[in-house]
Amino acid sequence: MFAPSIETASRFTRPIHTITRSYGANEVTPGSGTLFIVNEEGWALTCRHVVEVLLNAERINHHYRMFREELMQKWNEPGFDAHKKLMEQKYQLQSGSLIAMLNMFVNCVDRMEGFECRVHPVHDLALIRFNGFNQLYCDQFPVFPSDDNLLKPGMFLCRLGFPFPEFSNYRFNPQSDQIEWTQQGQQQSPMFPIEGMITRFLTDTSGLFGIEMSTPGLRGQSGGPLFDEKGVVMGMQYSTKHLHLGFDIENKEISVNGRTKMVNDYSFIHLGQCIHFSVMKAFMREQGVRFLESGAS
């Protein structure tokens, strides 16, 4: 049902790769997000919370860089350990504190001189524009419906994103005490589609703004498009909510491989939440960003 539309959406949907490191650890943790490019000028849609991660990277890296510079002023001097504890208190660093973050836009542009962001004042929605590129690695762009009342509960739609960060082209460099991208390892993560039925619509004081889906949006799919069987974009995945079903099991005796076990189980349903396409169109118009529009699909 969605095979052709997934192929269509894949032509403008791109991953954002993230690597992080925590204080007291040398392990590098990969993560991912999603965006989709909306026009040849290098504008793309994603979630506001994804943009906030991108913008926080420099602050996090600068904070640790300042700590390191002040710490190393007394390297190999008596009382270094006490000095280090004072610096950790000053910079509020403890085991598990985030100290390094790098982000990469994958298969978006040939080169980039930074990017600009415009975030929606209310909803989890943002625009990114790539600056200074020569070539945009996208020649097909999303189409949005012209009829804002097109969607109905019971309709089946599909989401596309990059929820499983299987890329491995990164490392921790002990000589520089930095995380870094490398030319070795796997540079891509596979796309992952997930279908679902529209269950309800989401509203606030301004009116309808979102779509609830019968299946969850997965971590890393935030910022990915929601589309119909023709590939027309109906929304954007931004979160998943978890509703308690009340089918709880406590201290239930079961048999597993011939052995008796006592188990507890608390059931939840996980429902994806997407920004409605009408909100996305209004935001792009407000920001002067061109997009494609069609009639009812």
Question: What secondary-structure arrangement, pairings included, does this model have?
Answer:
Layout: H1 3-10, E1 13-22, E2 29-37, E3 43-46, H2 48-71, H3 80-90, E4 98-105, E5 115-119, E6 126-130, E7 143-145, E8 156-161, E9 170-173, E10 178-181, E11 192-204, E12 207-213, E13 225-227, E14 233-244, E15 249-256, E16 259-265, E17 268-276, H4 277-286, E18 292-294
Parallel strand pairs: 7-18
Antiparallel strand pairs: 1-2, 1-4, 2-3, 3-6, 5-6, 8-11, 8-13, 9-10, 11-12, 12-17, 13-14, 14-17, 15-16
Give a verbal description of the structure.
The longest helix is centred in the N-terminal third of the chain and has 24 residues, at 48-71. The protein has 297 residues and is of the alpha+beta class. Strands 4-1-2-3-6-5 form a 6-stranded antiparallel sheet, covered by helices on one side. It has a 6-stranded antiparallel beta barrel with strand order 8-11-12-17-14-13. It has a two-stranded parallel ribbon with strand order 7-18. The protein is 18% helix and 40% strand. The model has no long low-confidence stretch (mean pLDDT 93).
